[in-house]
Design a protein that fits this description.
Formiminotransferase-cyclodeaminase, Chain B, domain 1, alpha+beta, single chain, Alpha-Beta Plaits
Length: about 300
């Protein structure tokens, strides 16, 4: 019997404070045949919600279109503010092949969702990462440059006409980046300082755009509710920019500026291999294989 293809998605919605709105958005993924809600988390400082969901392509696509519509209904980007860069009420929708699926399958789903949601709600969509239609659209940071507030001017440039939807921002929803990509790790490192400039200087030393790790995007922010600065990162390919290598480099750079790392956090899900690689490194395990993990073999 042929197994159903499974694709994962981690959409980011620009609401992390009004939990009633968050619940209505997340409801689009609950109790849906062919779709399983794995996790969701909110951050009031970033003012965003990150949802992790997996499903069969058609069912997942239907749920995602509904979630886009709900977010457009509930979130007004004209009054939104938060620490994290964003261009829309649904800031980004990545699709990641998980089981018996390929990047081509994830790309096809991204294009279907974008076309359907653009036609139904008038939301502009940019294809990014493996789905990008031009080199300058591959990097999510490039699409986010100028954020929601700068979209109106940015979209007048022919280089930034969206792939789907109108050539102007949705009045309240802004725009959305969507596409297929490899698994991404959302990894944050906390510092024992309130000086956000220190976090920014550390971020510049570890991120690809400034000569750091090839598959790391990073920035420094201040978390008001915690009273400290943080280096917040996206690891876009942990097999080439290892989690433990990035963590160690942040600690090295922190010492340069006389601060200390107080802890780290993973937002959402993380591939087991990334954790196993880190355990192998820190425990100095010899000839270790992920197949030695009991739960993996089960």
């Amino acid at each position: 019997m042929e197994r159903a293809k499974l694709i994962e998605s981690i959409p980011n919605f620009s609401e992390g404070r009004d939990l009633q709105k968050v619940e209505r958005i997340v409801d689009c993924f609950r109790a849906r045949p062919g779709v399983k809600l794995l996790d969701y988390s909110t951050d009031p400082d970033h003012n965003r919600c990150v949802v992790t969901v997996v499903g069969e392509p058609d069912a997942l696509g239907t749920a995602m279109v509904e979630a886009v519509g709900t977010a457009i209904e509930l979130i007004d980007m004209n009054v939104h503010e938060g620490k994290h860069p964003r261009i829309g009420c649904v800031d980004v929708i990545p699709f990641i092949p998980v089981r018996d699926a390929t990047l081509a399958d994830a790309d096809a789903l991204a294009r279907t969702v974008a076309q359907t949601a653009a036609e139904r709600f008038g939301q502009p969509f940019y294809l990014y990462e493996k789905s990008a239609t031009a080199a300058h659209r591959i990097d999510l940071a490039s699409i986010r440059a100028g954020q929601f507030e700068g979209l109106g001017v940015k979209m007048k440039d022919p280089r930034w006409i969206p792939d789907y939807g109108p050539s102007r921002p949705h009045p309240t929803g802004g725009a959305t980046a969507i596409g297929a990509r490899m698994p991404l790790i959302y990894f944050n490192v906390n510092l024992d300082t309130a000086n956000v400039e220190t976090a920014r200087r550390i971020a510049r030393r570890v991120r690809n755009i400034d000569g750091g790790f090839r598959y790391v995007k990073a920035m420094g922010i201040y978390l008001e509710d915690r009273g400290h600065a943080q280096v917040t990162m996206n690891l876009t390919d942990f097999t080439k920019s290892a989690l433990y290598s990035v963590f160690e480099q942040v600690k090295i750079e922190a010492r340069r500026f006389g601060v200390r790392v107080t802890g780290s956090e993973v937002v959402g899900f993380v591939p087991l291999q990334a954790i196993a690689d880190s355990a192998e490194y820190y425990l100095q395990l010899e000839d270790f294989s992920i197949e030695q993990v009991l739960e993996y073999d089960l």
